[in-house]
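pipeline/complex-builder :: batch 7 item 3
reading input block
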Amino acid sequence: VNGTLVFSPGSQSAEGRQARELIGAAKALGPSGPISLVVTTPYAESYSSGSLETIGGPAAVQTVAPQGLDFRVAEDLLVDLMAADEPRLVVLPHSPDALDIAGAAAARAGFDLISDVVELTWTDEVRAVRRIRGGRLLAEMGTPADRGLLITVRSAAFPAEDGDMPGHTRLVTTGDSDLEWRLVETEGSSEATTLSEASRVIGLGRGVLAGGDLPTFEALAEQLDAVIGATRPVIDAGWVAPARLIGLSGNTIRPRIYLAFGISGAVQHIAEVHADFLIAVTDNPNAPIADVADVVVLGDAAEVAVAMVQQTAGK
Amino acid sequence: MAIVVAVKHAALDAGSLISASSDEASEPATRGLGETDLSAVALACHLGFSQNVEVVAITAGEPEADSCLRECLARGASRAVRVEVSQSMADDPLTAARALSVAIGREQAEAILCGSQSPDGASGATGGALAAYLGIPRIPWTIDARFEPGFVEGTREIKPGLLAYTKVRSPVLLTVHDVKVGPAQGPTLRAIKAAEQRDIQVLEPEQLGLGGEAAVTRTRFLQLLPQSDSPVAELIDTSVESAADRINELVQERSL
């Protein structure tokens, strides 16, 4: 059983931040032994021309598959690598695509699986500390050390580090002939980019629907130079475009300040909120978002928003 | 032909997680269907109704898990099956997927649906593992699906504003995140009462050939740990005007 395999599927960043964070996790968590990195990406040229060599190798793998289907290529490749290299530890990102691959690959390759890991101890039994319920709790898990272990780690949970080996690129194409596919653009895909890169985000949840109105929050966003995002109930109510969804099936946000109005804090939402400072305005002191917020304002979210707009306008 | 929806009797609060890991007097357990499982049930029942096919709800767990199967029945599932395993086995995605795969293999299903992620473990791995054990293709994170003879087409929102439509020869497994068939409606009181009277088929692991190593949970939940570095939030419980003023102050302070 050999070292650690870092597997970064679907990376689109030429800087390889995800890959570097996974290497950081492998160095912090992995057993002794070499760390190898495999990046699957439709954009291998940007890796091979420079950044991969500094990230560390050995391989970036260009997936030639339709967008949205490259998980099939990535999964097959990962299973092949797990069988051939017999790594003691495999590290994947804790992202929706990778989670799906992780379960399938672990089952196919006969590995054990623990997700959202923050700490590992290697003895005759592997002890893992993992986050559960969106990170509000930590759980200790144990698994025998006689098989390989596949883990997922959350974005930004470990410092980004460089690898140790030179990189090279190879091409893997999908051989799928058992499916048909097509892509359809819907409205507002550019809005998502703005949201994911904003330094101030105002999040709207179910709690604003009863007494609130969108113009108030739009005015507040303009005053604070913030971007509006939302949870699924607000999007289903037609307040904002689907592209502004914050959560596992939408956007990941990394703002300096996140103002959450009327948001309960469901796991699917909180998992994709990486804010430096979170202010939650809620009328429910027991809402899960209170567990992860820096400041909890008890009150009617719509009324507080109106008061904020009036105060800011008066200054 | 049948549609199977695999669900988890998931811990919906920390109390039940603690009770599952401790011999101490436990808090009342609150378990039920998570949001994505509810979406999977809604989509399965929608497809079953439109295709006029049976919808079979399946879970792995202890007798308490029957409650989530009865909720599936109340929401429109045709019948329900529980694979009798311990809660610790049901909580491990690989062990649960293996147990479910054997039971589902007996159903001649055209499509197997399950939620993309449970609210407790949130591993998001059971669907992928289940498809692997069944040896069938899968379409992850779907928001809608439709049937054609011999095929299933799943809709996946691969990023905001971009939908992927993938058509795969059935049987196929779909992990479901959100549904676009309309919000999952709660069952009526009449449906709940009717579901309470329904039989639930219980399959013992031995019936399914799940003896030996397959009956052992390799990854065990040991204990909850305190989050020593978890900060306590500042609580502002004052007038609306004062709260608004304080938030505006904080926004300015934190932007420096």
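note: The longest strand of chain A covers residues 125-132.
queue -> next item
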